[in-house]
Amino acid sequence: MTADELTGHRDLPRTDDLPAIPHRLGSVLRHVVRPYMRRRYDLTIHHEERFPAVGPVLIAPNHLSLLDGPLLGAVAPRMLHQLGKVEAFQGVQGFLLHRAGQISIDRSQYDVLAIRRAIQILREGRALSVYPEGNRGPGDFRRIRGGVAYLAMVTGAPILPVALLGTRQPGGNIEHFPPRGSRVDVVYGESFTVDRVSFPRRQVDVRAVADQIGDVLRAHVQAAVEATGHPLPGAPDQKDPDE
User: Which of 24, 39, 120, 143 could cross-link 15 (Cys pair, CB 3.0–4.6 Å)?
Assistant: First the structure.
């Protein structure tokens, strides 16, 4: 699929009427945060060469803790736009997140604007990170929501599995960052695609594709655990009330 085919902003859902999404601040911040992450943690990046150098890509990481978003945004080879819960986009933090090109999503409803902005990012050939699990938890991709499947079906963007290991320790709290010096592994998988589907896209079809994507993501995180010898932390000790 060519880049021209992926930039059809007049296709449904339309994105040609949306304002440009800023990204310069995000590009600067990632270069500032990256050395901090490497100093604070025993960080290893695996298979970075698998990250597509150009074109649209859907990053699909597992979700363990507060560290996941800042870490992945800092160490990814390209500037990432990330979908995050609307509760985090408050006050000064919210202003900075918006200016850095991050997208808030209200998970209590079908957030049409957030979805259109996510599609806009991919149609512009950028990298977008979406947590397929939706919430922080065991990080084993046991439950997959339909968001990544829908975005892939609309845009045709390849999906890049990512296993985050060590961003929460066993028995750790999802509201906390791991201690300084903790071992953290970021393992990129092989990117893959699903069939692009024209409007309308039925919910049953999105669910079927999400299940297929879930199979690939579960296999990747299991392979990452085996290859690194770094296990998942299991269930968190406390549920985030906003999750």
Answer: 120
